[in-house]
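Bumping my old thread because nobody answered last time. Still need a sequence for this structure:
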């Protein structure tokens, strides 16, 4: 099963292609292929990631054609009611992005970190954390399996801020992955020198996941000792200017966070030119200084998603794994029905998943990857969502 539907190019202007998905028109950026109107492509995150033959595309589309419109009917029925904030946000989502839903994979390749953030279980002072690093071959094999066997079209490569992986190692990893599979690669490696990010862009990385966690300057200093918010924001802006897709946002429910912080944080997320919003609940880890603080009510997170959807109607908004952890049975569903239109599935080798403990008892680590994929697809189809690119 693939997590994108092929689309037909109807127009090309410079690097921007117009793509038709059963009558739905999207736009995507092409940087890697020679394309002509009439060609079929896969796109993720608004980037063309692969060109496929007309014959292959038509076979796939034939299997999708009837099902695609049935899904749209289901989605439409679920947006009739607009009494609550979440229902209104979900209706706005459908009106602006239709039933498209991004499904990305994530590979957590190292849990070492040089930082001592007060909220994070990977902080360097956590001496109970069992550390690991995946080597280049293991990372490449994991990605190749996720793309070529499991069907993913976009992968996030995530680690703690681990300088063991320098520009040479990271560039080699990206180069090897792109040699073996067509995929949108998103880097989540923390605050690195711009020259490193420039090199990663040269080798084919096209996205960065880098949250600012809070837009409250004083709170930021407290929870990220030795860091200031301006540096984080300036780095995000520079990466955006470099051409990267930006995935960012903040933690919801941090100690001392106000409602005004949340609302202004939503505004900041949108004004950074963000391609995907990410609002995860603060879940205290027992081996951190914030261990004694309460877990936020799930509705605070859902309200944040909904308000972001109302404020930025055409945005891509992630239902995070942390949200799923708050309600393992229905968290993802609630996020999608509050206005989210993106999910991530952890494709890290199972022996490492429980060790990447940002917070305790993470959702999904008890399941095999194939089981998680099937459960995710069942959820999406039950809500009338289709894995078509949302576009730019």
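Sorry it took so long. Here it is:
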């Amino acid at each position: 099963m693939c997590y994108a539907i092929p689309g037909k190019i109807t127009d090309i202007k410079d690097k921007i292609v117009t793509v038709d998905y059963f009558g739905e028109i999207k736009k995507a950026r092409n940087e890697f292929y020679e394309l002509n109107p009439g060609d079929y492509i896969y796109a993720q995150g608004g980037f063309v990631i692969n060109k496929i033959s007309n014959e292959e595309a038509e076979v796939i589309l034939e299997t999708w054609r009837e099902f695609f419109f049935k899904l749209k009917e289901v989605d439409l029925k679920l947006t009739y009611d607009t009494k609550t904030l979440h229902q209104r946000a979900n209706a706005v989502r459908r009106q602006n992005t239709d039933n498209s839903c991004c499904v990305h994979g994530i590979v957590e390749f190292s849990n070492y970190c040089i930082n001592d953030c007060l909220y994070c279980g990977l902080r360097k002072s956590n001496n109970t954390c069992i550390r690991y690093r995946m080597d280049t071959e293991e990372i490449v094999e994991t990605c190749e399996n996720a793309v070529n066997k499991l069907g993913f079209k976009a992968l996030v490569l995530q680690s703690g801020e681990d300088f063991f992986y320098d520009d040479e190692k990271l560039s080699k990893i990206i180069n090897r992955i792109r040699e073996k599979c067509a995929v949108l690669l998103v880097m989540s490696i923390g605050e690195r020198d711009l020259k490193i990010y420039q090199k990663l862009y040269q080798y084919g990385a096209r996205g960065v996941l880098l949250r600012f966690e809070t837009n409250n300057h004083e709170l930021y200093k407290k929870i990220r000792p030795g860091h200031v918010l301006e540096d984080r924001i300036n780095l995000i802006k520079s990466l955006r200017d470099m051409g990267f897709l930006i995935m960012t946002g903040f933690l919801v429910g941090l100690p001392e966070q106000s409602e005004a912080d949340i609302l202004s944080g939503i505004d900041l997320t949108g004004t950074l030119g963000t391609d995907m919003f990410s609002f995860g609940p603060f879940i205290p880890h027992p081996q951190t200084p914030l261990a004694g603080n309460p877990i936020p009510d799930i509705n605070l997170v859902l309200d944040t998603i909904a308000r972001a959807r109302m404020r930025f109607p055409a945005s891509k908004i992630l239902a995070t794994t942390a949200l799923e952890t708050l309600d393992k049975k229905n968290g993802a569903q609630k996020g999608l029905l509050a206005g989210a239109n993106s999910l991530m599935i952890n494709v890290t080798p199972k022996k490492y998943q429980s060790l990447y403990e940002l917070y305790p008892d993470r959702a999904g680590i008890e399941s095999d990857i194939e089981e998680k994929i099937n459960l995710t697809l069942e959820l999406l189809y039950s809500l009338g969502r289709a894995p078509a690119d949302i576009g730019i």
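The mean pLDDT is 93. Let me know if any region looks off to you.
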